[in-house]
Model the fold of this input.
Amino acid sequence: MRIESHWRILKKDYSSRFVRPRLDVLCYIVITGLVRSRIHLQRQVQLGREKPSSYKDFVQLWRKCAEAVDNSAILKRAEIYHTDKDRWVCSCSSFVLSHVWHIIGTQYR
Done:
């Protein structure tokens, strides 16, 4: 899949003037054009000026999963743990170790 993508970029952007370039011309195009642009893109990503190409896919998947969690799941969790915001108590096992964060976390959901 990635090889086909590289070939598509190479044929479309860099060797569109050549119908069947010779191997030395193709190597020259790869070294002078494609590699330089990829190094430039990598530097932009490392410096934080550009987002990686996989970032958009990750964000879409994250939003899709966030929409999958609806209010029924949150209400079910509240019924299981019996969290009471007014009295600051909860029946889960982590309440003993971190009771402040556990109750405050329910305030902002």
